[in-house]
Amino acid sequence: MEKKKVVGFSFGRKMSNTEVMIKEALLVCEKAGMEIQFLRCDDLNIHICTGCCSCVAGLMMGKGRGHCIHKDDDFHIIEEALMSADGVIVGSPTYEFAPTGNFKVVCDRIGPAHDKTFRGPAIEQGIAQGKAPESYPDPRSTKPRVGALITVGGARTENWLSLSLPNMYEFTFPMGIDVVDKYKYFGAMNIDHVLGRPDVMERMAKLGQNIVDALQAETEEERTRYRGDDKGVCPVCHESILTVGYGGNKVECPVCGIEGTLELVNGEIQVTFSEEQQNRSRLRDAGKWEHSNEIRDGAMTQKKVENLKELKMKYLGVGEA
């Protein structure tokens, strides 16, 4: 049997809390016989996404591999690590409510360019047409993967990390990586290093074991089963953040983009998401196809603005030094 590989992606400082927590989990994976790799992403030079859409446009037209126009940075290192991985452990400190800026830059570059519902058809078309493998996306793009998310915040109050884990799904959902565990370490300012918190390090060992168990599972249901401590409100992403204001008792999970109903039962809030809604979560294939088809339709039916170049002239140079 081919050895499974687990890659840790850290957006924290060298040998600080985030890095050491990821490495504790990786050591458990290595002990279980898995190949491991660690990337300190802040050491890499990653250009920002320009929003030019050439990566996705090429995939939709059956041309190219979905690669970015940027050719002179280190993103290829992250991409190859992702392609080779069967499991990922992603960690980022929380700065202002959410993961770091560098984390977001990498997520933007992963984004639609690596979405399995864009890459999958391009791969199938390339193979069917007998094209050279280097002319279509890497076939490893769509293989099943599992993942775990970690965030670290100095604040003693948990809600100062409230947008961290929800945002970290940006890393995993384009490629359909199934998140089987996640952990939020807050109050890190109370002690100078997480190595002084044996309870947290034990939890990281458990997180690593959860990755191992998922990768060794014999069924799809068991492989994708969520193993985290906090099951949350949403049964898909297991987050408890909700968007309200849709009228009546309708609410939405902003991670999954699915609608639920909120009720007060015996003085307790209960939120219910139907099976139909759960299946169209953007973390699942049906929801991903719903979105990618929306993008395809938009690209095909996009209306052109007449005299656009002339209309833009009014704004050329406004406020610029």
Automatic annotation (TrEMBL):
Database matches in SUPFAM superfamilies: Flavoproteins
Keyword Protein biosynthesis: no
Record carries keyword Flavoprotein: yes
NADPH-dependent FMN reductase-like domain mapped to chain residues: 13-120
Keywords from the UniProt entry: Flavoprotein, FMN
Domain of life according to the entry: Bacteria
InterPro entries, A to Z: Flavoprotein-like_sf, FMN_Rdtase-like_dom, ISF_SsuE-like
GO terms of molecular function: oxidoreductase activity
Transmembrane segments: none
PANTHER family documented for this protein: IRON-SULFUR FLAVOPROTEIN (PTHR43278:SF2), NAD(P)H-DEPENDENT FMN-CONTAINING OXIDOREDUCTASE YWQN-RELATED (PTHR43278)
Name of the molecule in the record: Flavodoxin family protein
Pfam families, per the entry: FMN_red (PF03358)
Organism expressing this protein natively: Schaedlerella arabinosiphila
